[in-house]
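queue> holo job accepted (adenosine-5'-diphosphate)
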Amino acid sequence: MSAISTDLVTARGLRKRFGAREVLQDIDLSVSAGSITVILGTNGAGKTTLLRILGLLEPADEGTVAYDGIVPGVSTVTYDASTRNPTQDPHYLPLRRRMLLAFQHPAIFSSSVLSNVMYGLQLRGVSRAEAEERSMAALREVGIAERARQHASSLSGGEAARLSVARALALQPRLLFLDEPSASLDPYGTKLLEDLLLHMRDDLGMTAVVVTQDIFEARRVADQVAFLHEGRIIEQAPRDDFFTHPRDDRTRRFVAGELLV
Ligand SMILES: Nc1ncnc2c1ncn2[C@@H]1O[C@H](COP(=O)(O)OP(=O)(O)O)[C@@H](O)[C@H]1O
Ligand SMILES: [Mg+2]
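queue> job finished
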């Protein structure tokens, strides 16, 4: 049996500098359609920066990212000195609208929980009534429907993380980026989140890129794992290969829980 996999996102040679610091170097990464790709790495490795570049929230300095089959006519972003910033260029707006990045610290608007979920739908032209219906359904799925009319700023960390997931369920973006989604969740919340992630992949056909420092979480949800270390992708492989036959010694040590210095 051969599975035909199509790459939805292909990054080649990405580089990113903050001032004199190179935080990402020569990044190659492939994300196949309908899969969950986990980017593993320690604090400061560059995970959030990479996710923000892939999600068109931040420009790279060099390299290309191809988005294949998401929006007709908008496929490749090339970064060089003459690039207009794709995070603001209206040409890329249809693409940006099919992607959602859920933050490590979710951005909460100063309004009710329900409005926070409805906002993205209304921005994309969904009627108020339909937006409300889809948002309430999503809040029920993540288990915070009883908080719908409450002010979003009054949510606990775990509830705010669920709010991020509810946004994703309501919007159903083609590409979902999750930045350390279980960082503020208890074990029950983590299980709920991981089950929802698998549901989004298996039943809603979504593709996800998930950043985490947790190798056990990667084992539970990943189809593909990429190890990002000091701004470089050390290794990308299907999950079982990654954990049982790491090719790079640094990957082997990271997976074994050793400190990399
Ligand atoms: N806006 C920024 N300005 C300057 N330095 C930044 C900025 N964002 C991130 N960095 C630096 O880039 C490096 C990678 O950060 P980040 O992508 O947040 O790593 P991670 O998410 O893996 O912890 C860190 O050293 C961080 O301090
Ligand atoms: Mg981060």
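queue> The first helix runs from residue 47 to 54.
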